[in-house]
Amino acid sequence: MFPFFPSLFFVVSRYDLRVCFISVFRTALLTGILLLLFGCDQPSEHIFRGTTMGTTYTVRATHAPASALSGLERAIQDRLERINASMSVYCPESEISRFNALSMGESMPISEDFEHVLRVSTQVYDQTGGAFDPTVQPLLNLWGFGSGAANQETWRPPSEEAVRHALASVGLRLVDASTPGRLSKRHPGVQLDLGGVAKGFAVDALTVLLEERGVRNYLVDIGGDVRVSGRNAEGEPWRIGVNQPERGQDWNEILLVLRPGRGAVLTSGDYRQFFEHDGLFFSHILDPRTGHPLENGVASVTVLAETAVLADALVTGLMVLGVEKGLELVESLHGVEALFLVRVGRDGVEEVLDARSSGFDHAGGL
To answer: What is the SS3 assignment for the chain?
Structure first.
């Protein structure tokens, strides 16, 4: 299973005024934003919930044909179980665990799912100049954000020597994927962790499952990674709220509500997972190029994209790149928009400003 984190997303509907579900989410994150869903008992809406990858999932299908619903819940569970068995670092028999245990000179076959996620990861790694890197696990462990999370009371920043040592094992080019369908290592210490993109891939996989069954109106949420299509039970576009990026805030502090119509919406932020030491905050989002937590003032990034796996990888890379380089990259990409929320200190008072790509408001239905 994957590490458990609260969700950064919420969805709003107006059937009645009772909250019937709050989704749960990560790391990564981002990601915060949370999911509040009203009107769960509408007959035109079918809801499937469960747990996967250390968090929860919700699939909402509206106005779906009866034939599409037969066996759908079991099909959703089976698909998620296959992905988890492939990409979870907490499963010793998973593909990713077997790769991490691989010795130099050995190679192993990988599934189409694994190869696809690695291909997208490599694409975003190249696009961001290494700001997104799925081999960052040694650094996460060093800073106390890995599988064996450190205690806030006893946590201390690592030494520069330790950071340099961990950096020697970081870099996607240390993974050899030159042979189609197989993987090997170019450095004995390199470790893959696809937690930053696996949930996005799983969201996309479930949308494929729904589309194949003829479902055209849906919302899929896995731990805050959200993808929507069509209309909700009210016949309106799905509404996804974005939280204020403040440390210690309530989950229902809303900054804005998006109505994307179709596509993926993901947020990553620095305000849910962090350590505080000597009055300084150390984010769980690390720059793989320097080995240190971010210090660029970016509090959160929200990405709109056609697929959740692409948005998942980009949102982390954009956090690391910062506003100027991040927006420059987004403007060069087709079908991608982004919102940056940045902390700015003025006269001893901290405020949050936003910077948006040119098409963000239109794509977000604002």
So the answer is: CCCCCCCCCEEECCCCCCCCCECCCCCCCCCCCCCECCCCCCCCEEEEEEEECCEEEEEEEECCCHHHHCCHHHHHHHHHHHHHHHHCCCCCCCHHHHHHCCCCCCEEECCHHHHHHHHHHHHHHHHCCCCCCCCCHHHHHHHCCCCCCCCCCCCCCCCHHHHHHHHCCCCHHHEECCCCCEEEECCCCCCCCCHHHHHHHHHHHHHHHHHHCCCCCEEEEECCEEEEECECCCCCECEEEEECCCCCCCCCCEEEEECCCCEEEEEEECCCCEEEECCEEEECCEECCCCEECCCCEEEEEEEECCHHHHHHHHHHHHHHCHHHHHHHHHHCCCCEEEEEEEEEECCEEEEEEEECCCHHHHCCC
pLDDT at 21: 30
Residue 225, amino acid:
D
CATH code given to domain 85-192? 1.10.3980.10
**What pLDDT score does 281 carry?**
64
pLDDT at 128: 98
Per-domain residue ranges of the chain: 85-192
Nearest to 259 by CA among 365, 339, 363, 338: 365
Write down the pLDDT at residue 15: 34
What are the angstrom distances between the C-alpha of 87 and each of 19, 168, 334? 33, 23, 28
| Token pair 């799925």: residue | 134
**Low-confidence residues of the chain, pLDDT below 70?**
1-43, 147-154, 246-252, 271-282, 346-349
